[in-house]
Design brief:
The chain has 348 residues and is α+β, with helices and mostly antiparallel strands. 16% of the residues lie in helices and 39% in strands. Strands 1, 2, 3, 4, 5, 13, 14, 18, 19, 20 and 21 form an 11-stranded mixed beta sheet that branches. Strands 8-12-11 form a 3-stranded mixed beta sheet, covered by helices on one side. A 3-stranded mixed beta sheet has the order 16-15-17, covered by helices on one side. Helix 2 runs antiparallel to helix 3. The protein starts with a strand and ends in a 12-residue tail after the last strand.
Length: 348
């Protein structure tokens, strides 16, 4: 009953970016001083402190689990007072942790992620881990004492390449490059054949245009992949991945070839989709609230109602929610599914 509004932001802006720490801001009515840490009559006295766990649910579905960083108290001349809870997920913790040095075991990427989470400098609970084994094998590289935990984990994800983030239930999640979608993707449409949306951002540009990829192996060689036709048209656009703990130089060549094949041409892509869900049927609301990073959705769009319709699938790479008493807006940041890995002879 004290919640005035809240804002959740999880994910990343572009597909080649690293996932950022999820953020949560909750504004609470504090006119009674119930959330004032110095108010002795508060039933929460002694509990209004940083580093407490906080969970937000909507339609009984968890939307974020995080840890409180700050309690900001706001007092307005009108007499209204607010307590603002500012929280972030485990990535904020990892960014401030240093690994104990040692030699890692030669293993797959997901196995390395799991091992790092048990490192003495991290000690993440194994009950909060949801990690796939991975498809890329890694060398037994030497981890220097004091290596930043989050930076190293992101290097492992880039070596796969895979998706590493904190799930909305607070688990550390790693999806390898063969990550599968489950069930039929939710469809959003502007013609009545799917869930209606209010705004759609479309991008056609050079944000993800890279026609020269350089990948170097820690303690090994360097592989370079070029798309000459793209370079002739757009000039050289370089992307470098340095000192990846790949098992050999051939893996570096494979990764460079894959990345240049995926990003050598500019792409017309859906970037973000905004849905006001407060007036939708509860079942429809729940289907949207159940979405997680890495899920796939379908988007149908007819610009200005001028055919033909654009009908594409997209990966959810960012989820934000802005909720007040009269509005619940969900914004999905989207990435392309073109060029994703697939398996020869797979049934789908």
């Amino acid at each position: 009953p004290y919640v005035v509004q809240y804002f959740i932001s999880r994910g990343k802006s572009r597909q080649l970016d690293r996932y950022q720490a999820g953020k949560l801001d909750v504004t609470l009515d504090n006119n009674s001083r119930i959330f004032d840490p110095l108010f002795g009559e508060s039933p929460y006295r002694g509990q209004i402190i940083p580093k407490r766990a906080v969970r937000v649910t909507s339609n009984d579905d968890i939307q974020v689990e995080a840890v409180i960083d700050d309690w900001d108290l706001s007092y307005e001349p009108s007499g209204n007072s607010y307590a603002i809870v500012k929280a972030s997920d485990a990535f904020s913790q990892f960014s401030n942790q240093s690994l104990s040095g040692g030699t890692a075991t030669a293993q797959y990427t997901g196995e390395r992620v799991a091992a790092i989470l048990t490192n003495a400098g991290v000690q993440w609970p194994n009950t909060r881990v949801d990690v796939e084994t991975g498809q890329q094998f890694l060398q037994a590289d030497i981890i220097d004492d004091g290596t930043n935990a989050l930076s190293y984990l992101n290097t492992i994800a880039e070596s796969e390449p895979g998706e590493l983030f904190v799930s909305k239930t607070g688990d550390v999640k790693f999806l390898d490059r063969w990550a599968e979608t489950s069930g039929t993707p939710i469809a959003f449409a502007d013609d009545g054949t799917g869930i209606p949306y209010q705004n759609l951002a479309v991008v056609y540009g050079a944000e993800l245009l890279y026609n020269q990829i350089v990948v170097s192996v820690e303690g090994g060689g360097t592989a370079t992949a070029n798309d000459n036709a793209s370079q002739d048209t757009y000039g050289i656009q370089n992307l470098t991945r340095s000192n990846l703990p790949l098992d050999n130089d051939t893996s570096a060549t494979n990764l460079a070839n894959y990345l240049v094949s995926q990003y050598a041409q500019p792409e017309y892509r859906f970037e973000a989709l905004e849905i006001e869900i407060i007036d939708l049927a509860e079942a429809t609301q729940t289907s949207i609230l159940n979405l997680e990073l890495g899920d796939v959705v379908r988007v149908k769009f007819t610009p200005n109602n001028v055919p033909p319709q654009i009908d594409r699938f997209a990966e959810v790479i960012r989820i934000s929610q802005r909720v007040t008493e009269t509005s619940h807006k969900v914004t999905l940041g989207l990435g392309s599914t073109d060029g994703e890995f697939w398996r020869l002879s797979d049934l789908v």
